[in-house]
Fold ABC transporter ATP-binding protein.
Amino acid sequence: MTRAISLHDVSKSYTRGTRVVDGLSLDIAPGEFLVLLGPSGCGKSTVLRMIAGLEEIDEGELLLDGERANDWQPAARDIAMVFQNFALYPSMTSRDNIGFPLRIEDRGADPGPRVTATARMLGVEDLLDRYPSQLSGGERQRIAMGRAIARHASAFLMDEPLSNLDAKLRNRLRAEIAQLTRELGVTTVYVTHDQAEAMSLGDRVAVLRGGVLQQVGTPREVYALPRNVFVAAFIGVPRINLLQGVVRAPLDGAMTIGLGKQALRLPEPLSLDHRLLRVQQGREVIVGLRSEVVRIADRDSARPGEALITGLVEHVEFQGHEILVHFNTGSRPAVVPELEAPRPAARPPRRRRREGPGMLDRLRGRAGAALRAGPVVVLEDLEDPEDPPGSPASDTAPSGVRLPGDLVVRTTPDVRLHHGMQVPLLVDLDRVFVFDQDGDRICPSPDRLPDLDA
Ligand SMILES: Nc1ncnc2c1ncn2[C@@H]1O[C@H](COP(=O)(O)OP(=O)(O)OP(=O)(O)O)[C@@H](O)[C@H]1O
């Protein structure tokens, strides 16, 4: 049997006055794989522990298959949990570790056949007589998985089960978990701060920030229609470009979104979404441009709905299958106050020495200018080992200044570009996000239902 899990307006405080989970409502269908995604400390593990019965719920309701379960003992919930630290008994072999919950469940029964079947499913039959100290990290985590699934629990709760493994192994186990849970069809709630993991595993992803649910949807929905600037920035690599803009809607001229020294001219006739933007006339907004909505091409090859700007090449990152080009377009990174802790220091990419002011001076100058302009977008550290310092998703200096350039564009590796080139850029306006100063998406209209089957 697999469970439906519902949280209705659930809150939790460890210390008086500070809610680490705040009014969370979520309905998880039987057999669904739901990922709780968010930065460190946003309350993900607390949610999991409340579902497991390891933490009391202060306010709100937990329903298991429609029944109020707030006060049920953990054992009565029939839920198995997998932790990030593997949590195996060091004095037991893999066989005994996997069989342990079965022996607790039914003292008289022989766990042997279930242990063997589970080990076969996980491909760890040859590890059954080894102790945890004789296993690699990946093997240990497989055994921990085995212990969770051998019981045939009605739901799995997984708390960053792969975070202690190296990137290659994580990818492999990620695929295995996806396959295994699909085969077993057991409701799974999976906690991670790694957006790539969330996107590849989840039927749906619930994005949490500061204990508050920001958005829940399929990976495709949260990527293509993020409800706010936080979700937009948290999901997607390279990180979305967020620029400070101003809506201009003169009565006698074309409607534009000013981006510093340049402007995006909205195509006419205006789409419904762009017409709705008119009320923002004169207001500052945040413009979100994913790296794939801008292409390097001149005006003559513009398609309907594309606007032309230009960019100065600041840095070219060769990635093999693609190139990430960092442009300076003369715009400012978006101002979003109160967006939590900055990422840790990232190394700016190495550049050749040039005449004139040194690298450090130029960085200092730019950081100073940006700071004078206001706080720039700074987001929680994703702590993703696949996202090393200097990679496009982590190009934020300690001050929060994105370096180098203000716009990262993805292109094919055959495009030859070098530092200092002025390049025409076409922006697909249908796929540009506009957020208000509170960070809420206002274009496409927030009422727009996801229609993402294309
Ligand atoms: N037992 C506790 N007592 C007091 N505060 C706690 C306790 N457990 C967690 N917290 C605090 O509650 C907040 C949420 O913690 P939680 O572990 O749920 O976050 P998380 O999103 O899972 O973080 P991480 O990804 O780092 O594990 C944090 O600020 C944490 O310090």
Observations:
- The chain has a mean pLDDT of 82.
- DSSP finds eleven helices and 21 strands in the chain.
- Residues 5-224 form a domain with the Rossmann fold fold (CATH 3.40.50.300).
- The pocket of adenosine-5'-triphosphate is lined by residues 14, 20, 38, 40-46, 193 (CB under 6 Å).
